[in-house]
């Protein structure tokens, strides 16, 4: 296993940031959670005036053998079709990445069919996972390789200048794998983790829960042995996202989380290095019911709640401007003294 | 009273937009409220591919005579000091306006002291309102003049290219006037409208409620006669914001609402032309407790909830990128047929 060292966030700089933010020309606390996020960014980056732009968006694509069990409404071929859509710039994550001036890279870490496109980074570890309802999804060595692909891609995009990491995914069947991973981290029943939030028909939902239940009984995966845990369930893109997050946190680069799959990948990353959670901000709350459980395990409250459930990194990309606004607030606003503005008349009062 | 004609939003184009959005390369409904906002923008603008950029931000500043009653923690001089801070570019609304590429104009519609700055548009109707706890805040003719200032400034900024209107404000004491206006539109008790959300000390909060209670008993203001209603309570900047919204709606320009004061101004505008609410999208939910009541009266659910309570238009400016993302989604995403992506296998299922 590769060596990863993630430092804890810097509490002192976070406190300094809070004190400085109270001097800006606004009633103390009146920018609400933007103030909190700005202070957190300072603690993550070690910089009182954190820079989050440009963000780097990595979309990892891979297939899931479990799709043969009939757990998804979309055929597996959609994974590859969407990868070509990403390459042409027509998907939601392309649109939202352009709006936020993001560096965007599409990485094939395990699509079932060959992908031949110069805009797609070919890092296929294997052609999709095996069906984890019957057998292990991959070997621990393959899981580590996928983790390493994510790690290396994050190092690369940070080297190109990315100051925030957004990890996205495309993989038909990956809510099944993510639900199974999450189920091993919590006592919540599968009925609360695997929802019909995405619009799947009720019969198929029950079937999907049953597939996961049987798979967990078969493998008895143990999150305390994270490589084996990942190998038993998958997926390749989830491992790659976790690896990318580890690389970002190691470099004190803030991580803006997307929805359900991404937040489960964040929990995977935390199994390898607990401090990695210090560098995470939750972008949005997904409609997928397991997402609330995953966010609760991470202790994160998301920036936005627009009932999105697309994945690809789209929720994080849509939320990113709020994080950028928080950072700009600290760098660009005047202080009461620099602007010659009077402060509140009475101590303890904050109203305009 | 000036003649204003606000057409209803176009339901047919809104429906067409919903049908088109379902063809984009994503599971139907998976972009959640972004899809809903995109459809509403289509109905407002009459354009299936609405353009919301650049936004135009108008910040109206004015003083409130009621401040002598001791209803605010900040001295009245802060209104003028903040106007100069706006002119220098150091306030929150400057920072957030730059981030979203907004046209930004600062308008003195009634600051108590002379403002001499080339970056401030001088349209002073009078030097602040009178103290509405003792007498009418202004004459109906002055209220109409303030409304007209807002109307003309919106016409001007739309003429310069603004495709969304954000109306902001600065005026020490204006939560008191806004609370009084709102109290006449609802049966909710003053204790629920005038909160301590902004951090005011408990004793002063009770005093502020009492000042409003007595003023309402004195004036018995009637929202059905909107000019007299506005004249009795104020303020000049609230009237101007309402006028700006009327001009925007008349031109089918979407209005992105800020917090409590702005949403009360939206309710004022609706007293003049009910259809104006068709053109409004709520930007954020403020900490000020009356804001939830005002949003309820308008029937709007906000884009973000970050516990902000600053005003100036800051909440709307921070939320604007979400609206822009909704518009970009429609204009730029590929459809299933254009991208050659398979749709869901079974009718009624929407999951990836």
UniProtKB/TrEMBL annotation, chains A, B:
| Main enzyme class | transferase
UniProt keywords (A-Z) are:
Cobalamin biosynthesis, Glycosyltransferase, Transferase
Q: Does the keyword Glycosyltransferase apply?
A: yes
Q: Which gene encodes it?
A: cobT
Q: Gene3D superfamilies from the entry?
A: 1.10.1610.10, 3.40.50.10210
Annotated family? Belongs to the CobT family.
**E.C. number:** 2.4.2.21
Reaction catalysed by this chain? 5,6-dimethylbenzimidazole + nicotinate beta-D-ribonucleotide = alpha-ribazole 5'-phosphate + nicotinate + H(+)
Function as written in the Swiss-Prot or TrEMBL entry: Catalyzes the synthesis of alpha-ribazole-5'-phosphate from nicotinate mononucleotide (NAMN) and 5,6-dimethylbenzimidazole (DMB).
Instruction: Supply the name of the protein.
Output: Nicotinate-nucleotide--dimethylbenzimidazole phosphoribosyltransferase
Q: Which NCBIfam families match?
A: cobT_DBIPRT (TIGR03160), PRK00105.1 (NF000996)
Pathway-wise, it operates in: Nucleoside biosynthesis; alpha-ribazole biosynthesis; alpha-ribazole from 5,6-dimethylbenzimidazole: step 1/2
The Gene Ontology terms for molecular function here are: glycosyltransferase activity
Active-site positions, per UniProt?
312 (proton acceptor)
């Amino acid at each position: 296993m590769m060596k990863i060292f993630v430092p804890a966030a810097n509490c002192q700089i976070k406190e300094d940031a809070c004190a400085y933010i109270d001097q800006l020309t606004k009633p103390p606390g009146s920018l609400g959670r933007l103030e909190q996020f700005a202070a957190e960014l300072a603690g993550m980056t070690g910089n009182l005036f954190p820079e989050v732009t440009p963000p780097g968006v990595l979309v990892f694509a891979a297939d899931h053998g479990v799709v043969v069990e009939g757990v998804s409404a979309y055929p597996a071929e959609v994974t590859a079709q969407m990868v070509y859509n990403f390459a042409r710039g027509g998907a939601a994550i392309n649109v939202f990445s352009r709006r936020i001036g993001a560096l965007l890279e599409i990485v094939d870490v395990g699509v079932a069919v060959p992908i031949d496109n110069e805009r797609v980074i070919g890092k296929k570890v294997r052609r999709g996972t095996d069906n984890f309802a019957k057998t292990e999804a991959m070997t621990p060595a393959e899981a580590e390789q996928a983790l390493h692909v994510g790690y290396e891609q994050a190092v690369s995009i940070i080297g190109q200048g990315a100051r925030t990491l957004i990890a996205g995914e495309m993989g038909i069947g990956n809510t099944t794998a993510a639900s199974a991973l999450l189920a091993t981290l919590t006592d919540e029943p599968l009925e609360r983790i695997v929802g019909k939030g995405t619009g799947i028909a009720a019969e198929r939902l029950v079937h999907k829960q049953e597939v996961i239940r049987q798979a967990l009984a078969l493998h008895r995966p143990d999150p305390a042995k994270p490589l084996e845990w990942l190998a038993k369930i998958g997926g390749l893109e989830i491992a790659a996202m976790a690896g990318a997050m580890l690389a970002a946190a190691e470099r004190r680069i803030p991580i803006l989380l997307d929805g359900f799959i991404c937040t489960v990948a964040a929990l995977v990353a935390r199994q390898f290095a607990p401090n990695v959670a210090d560098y995470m901000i939750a972008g949005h709350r997904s409609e997928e019911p397991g997402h609330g459980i995953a966010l609760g395990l991470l202790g994160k409250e998301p920036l936005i709640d627009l009932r999105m459930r697309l994945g690809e990194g789209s929720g994080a990309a849509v939320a990113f401007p709020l994080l950028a606004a928080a950072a700009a607030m600290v760098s660009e606003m005047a202080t009461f003294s620099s602007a010659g503005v009077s402060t509140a008349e009475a101590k303890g009062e904050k109203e305009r």
